[in-house]
User: Which sequence fits this backbone?
């Protein structure tokens, strides 16, 4: 069973940067799209950015130009570089993996808190 291990969250001042990482265990040849979602208190979970196996990316409109998603297929790892962070970016960030053969798995989440 594939498991996701997230890291890189924390407390940062507005305008600062953080880099999230998510490493997936298991067979790397079965992993398709990877991505990041986030959920703020009292709100629904929303997509932040996703990246396909071939490197095609898609971002939520509010993150374009500030966040960059990337992946290392050999390491089964997806990254999210977050720059120019704002207090409204405060949320729990969840890693997401969709498999080529169907199905998906979620990480346990990592907290990002941005203070002004």
Assistant:
């Amino acid at each position: 069973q594939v498991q996701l291990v997230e890291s890189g969250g924390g407390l940062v001042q507005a305008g600062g940067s953080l880099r999230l990482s998510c490493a997936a265990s298991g067979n790397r040849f079965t992993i398709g799209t990877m991505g990041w979602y986030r959920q703020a208190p009292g709100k629904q979970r929303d997509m932040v950015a996703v990246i396909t196996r071939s490197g095609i990316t898609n971002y939520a409109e509010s993150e374009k130009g500030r966040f960059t998603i990337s992946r290392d297929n050999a390491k089964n790892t997806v990254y999210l570089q977050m720059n120019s962070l704002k207090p409204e970016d405060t949320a729990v960030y969840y890693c997401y993996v969709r498999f080529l053969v169907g199905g998906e798995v979620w990480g346990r989440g990592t907290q990002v808190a941005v203070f002004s």
Remarks:
- The radius of gyration is 14 Å.
- The mean pLDDT is 94.
- The chain is about 0% helix and 55% strand.
